[in-house]
Amino acid sequence: MNRKLIAPTLVGALITIQAIAGTASAETIDLNSALLLSELISSEGTISSGDKEFSNFGYAATGDMPSSDRVNVIPLVDDDGNYGIRFQGGFVDLPGKGASDALISYDVTATAPGQTISGAHLAGNIVENDGSGSVTETFLPIFDLTDEVLRIPTDDNRLNDWIMFDETVSELQVQKNILLIATGEGQVDMSFVDQSFSQVPEPGGVALLMLGLLAFGCMNKRN
Questions:
Q1: d(CA 50, CA 100)
Q2: In this structure, which of 29, 117, 183, 218 has its CB flanked by the most CB atoms within 10 Å?
Q3: How much is the pLDDT for 17?
Q4: 84-105: buried (b, 16+ CB within 10 Å) or exposed (e) per residue?
């Protein structure tokens, strides 16, 4: 996979990811830790996954999409050790009724001291029996940084991809749009969409680390 670096001057930069009905990857997903999306919305609750905290959930759906009380939110960690969440539910569009659409919004915050979010990772399992489906994701940074977009499926039929930000942030506002369109006699399904975030130390933290290593090296040399 080629690495992608998206500069903040590229307005509406796009990355696409598409469908090999596949796997997103978490080392372990504890279904007992799942929370209903409706509960997170009504209680203005938060859910934590490692050093990431997710809050301010919102949901709107049309067509055959499930209601928020039929969508689970589950903490996960991906194969690279990045923490995130899975949205699991019966996302579907049935034939003969037009498109079905679901919009999920939430905030993600890096809670570990000295850490900032440097990139996002997206995966899903769209099953296109007779139609099409996509997940489009927009990130709205707290400060003046151009919006970035992730989208699945991709031109080469992958259901997973990632984006690295040119600038890092401590918090992101995420808007995830799921659009399914059954154009024939079969339905279009998606049972989960996974999101994880990578992070890097803040510049000040890196400087302190380098000073510590330098001091340690000097002590060893003297000894």
A1: 33
A2: 117
A3: 30
A4: bbbbbbebbbbbeeebbbbbbb
pTM of the model: 0.77
The beta strands (E) that lie in the chain are given as 5-6, 13-16, 35-36, 47-49, 52-62, 71-77, 83-93, 100-110, 115-124, 127-128, 131-141, 148-152, 160-169, 171-182, 188-201
Which residue is associated with the tokens 């930000």? 165
Q: What angle do CA 47, 166, 109 make, to 5 degrees?
A: 15
Strand pairing class (188-201; 127-128): antiparallel
> Do residues 172 and 141 touch, judged by C-beta distance below 8 A?
yes
Q: What is the pLDDT of residue 154?
A: 72
Query: Which pLDDT score, from 0 to 100, does residue 148 have?
Result: 72
Q: How far is CA 147 from CA 8, 216, 219, in A?
A: 8, 41, 46
How many structural domains are present in the chain?
Answer: 1
Q: Where in the sequence is the domain holding 81, given as residue range(s)? A: 5-222
Burial class (CB in 10 A: 0-12, 13-18, 19+), 146: middle
User: According to the model, what pLDDT value does residue 201 have?
Assistant: 83
Quick one: which H or E segment has residue 216?
A: helix 203-222
For 173-187, what is each residue's pLDDT tens digit?
999 999 999 998 899
Query: What's the rounded Cα separation, in Å, for the pair 103 and 77?
Result: 23
CA atoms within 13 A on the CB side of 205: 9
Give, rounded to a whole angstrom, the gap between the first and last alpha carbons of the chain: 46
